[in-house]
TrEMBL record:
Protein name per Swiss-Prot or TrEMBL: NADH:ubiquinone reductase (non-electrogenic)
Stated family: Belongs to the NADH dehydrogenase family.
Transmembrane segments: 371-391
Recorded catalytic activity of this chain's protein: a quinone + NADH + H(+) = a quinol + NAD(+)
Molecular function terms, GO-annotated: NADH dehydrogenase (quinone) (non-electrogenic) activity
Length: 435
């Protein structure tokens, strides 16, 4: 791997997501050698992936080069590497570019899409965890609109213009709202040969409300806003299969569609090699103590989505969202410094800053402890918070001006089919990691 030998303690971090990056930034200047490994050479700001999928933003606005973090210290290194397994007895990680010995290992590999064992969905569906996947969705939506303009088969056109999203959590809600806006503002101008009323956006949810992790107030408001935008919501509806053309559910509902987007859940993305007792099987996440140490190991830590820390308030672990990941990353940085100095570790405490989701232009819902609000002000807060947390000054600036442009012009400038979506076979070869 071409990492120089050192007498300093070596900290190896797997994953440059929210957790890994927060940790890396805090230990850059410390007396240790830090090696950051990721299968991508950039950090992905997942909360805005849906804007890439729906042509609102270019991918480089929400991605940040990981070498920009490590370059500020001679003791820090980034390697583009897929970690395959860990040998804890030898303190070694095995990757596709070689092996690396660590003193302290931090696993921050996040989560992957959960298909709940449904093979037809995994085989024919499309999902969104990475930038290439978001670009696949963008291409698929635009290609289907192009196809719909030229087909003279009304059944085929219907299927091309039906967009089905499964899972009404924040991703499903944000994505369906954004596709509805595409239908309401872009399709009438760009595709004069199409009748926008023929384009249907269906949002399917197994539970009895949209945004189940948020308050009842947020659910009701988001439901109203989605309906205002023309999204057809089907609650208490579980998808049973999708064969690439037809979605079948546990109710009478069956929809013909060429676009089936699965956003119904995630599960942990652990690395092979640790003892079975380190993993909480149901969640596929590492069981960690209050110091983020993985169960059974003193020098292996897990942070972010992949870590399950049981507390009184969160008996099933912290929510798999960005804030616990960032806070755990920052906290572990302090604990690793303490460990190296031979001091006592301090327990992690999560500070819940609230949750929010946007449904579209001027529409969002925010739960801030006792304060629950929606509409234009919530949307403004949502934009401010996302700009604030977006990594890098350039990304913030580009996104800010893009949003102003889109707002004034009712436009989505990035509606380009740069890398055509060629269907299942190609997608699987592009998304090797299947996250
Ligand atoms: C579409 C979408 C929308 C979201 N919206 C929101 C939102 O609005 N608000 C919110 O708070 N949260 C949101 N989340 C959740 C949030 O993004 C995650 O909770 C957060 O990213 C978790 O951070 P992490 O560092 O644990 O993992 P990640 O950010 O997923 O980072 C994991 C990193 O590890 C790397 N990696 C994984 N396995 C390996 C391996 N074997 N070898 C090398 N590298 C590896 C990956 O490439 C990745 O860079 C959203 C998630 C998605 C997918």
């Amino acid at each position: 791997m071409n990492i120089p030998k050192t007498s300093l303690p070596r900290v190896v971090i797997i994953g440059g997501g929210f957790a890994g990056m927060a940790l890396a930034r805090k230990i850059l200047k410390e007396d240790m050698q830090m090696v950051l490994l990721d299968r991508h050479n950039y950090h992905t700001f997942q909360p805005l992936l849906y804007q890439v999928s729906t042509s609102g933003l270019e991918p480089d606005s929400i991605a940040y080069p990981l070498r920009k973090i490590t370059r500020s210290s001679e003791k820090c290194f980034f390697r583009l590497a897929e970690v395959k397994s860990i040998s804890a007895e030898e303190n070694t990680v095995h990757t596709n570019i070689g092996d690396l010995v660590y003193d302290y290992l931090v696993i921050a590999t996040g989560s992957k899409t959960n298909f709940f064992g449904n093979e037809s969905i995994e085989k024919h569906g499309i999902w969104m965890k990475t930038v290439p996947q978001a670009l696949n969705i963008r291409s698929l939506i635009l290609e289907n609109l192009e196809q719909a303009t030229i087909t003279d088969d009304p059944e085929k056109r219907k299927s091309l213009l039906n967009f089905v999203l499964v899972g009404a959590g924040p991703t499903g809600v944000e994505l369906s709202g954004a596709i509805a806006e595409l239908r309401n503002h872009i399709v009438p101008r760009d595709y004069p040969d199409l009748d926008p009323n023929e384009m249907n956006i269906h949002l399917l949810e197994g539970l009895d409300r949209v945004l189940p992790p948020m308050s009842e107030h947020a659910s009701e408001k988001a439901h109203e806003m989605l309906e205002e935008l023309g999204v057809k919501i089907h609650l208490n509806t579980m998808v049973e299969s999708y064969d690439g053309h037809l979605v079948e559910t546990n109710t009478d509902l069956a929809i013909k569609t060429e676009t089936f987007i699965w956003s119904a859940g995630v599960t942990g993305a652990p690395v092979k090699g640790l003892n079975a007792s380190a993993i909480v099987e149901k969640a596929n996440r590492y069981e960690v103590n209050a110091f983020n140490q993985v169960n059974g190991y003193e020098n292996i830590f897990a942070i972010g989505d992949i870590a399950l820390m049981q507390t009184e308030e969160f008996p099933k672990g912290h929510p798999m969202v960005a804030q616990p990941a960032i806070q755990q990353g920052k906290h572990l940085a302090k604990n690793i410094k303490r460990l190296i100095r031979g001091e006592k570790l301090e327990a992690f405490e999560y500070f819940d800053k609230g949750t929010m989701a946007t449904v579209g232009r001027n529409r969002a819902v925010v739960d801030l402890h006792k304060w629950k609000f929606s509409g234009f002000f919530a949307w403004f807060v949502w934009m401010f918070v996302h700009l604030w947390f977006l990594v890098g000054f350039r990304n913030r600036t580009v996104t800010f001006f893009n949003w102003i442009y889109n707002y004034i012009n009712y436009d989505k400038a990035a509606r380009l089919i740069i890398r055509p979506f060629k269907g299942h076979e190609e997608r699987m070869s592009l998304d090797k990691e299947k996250v």
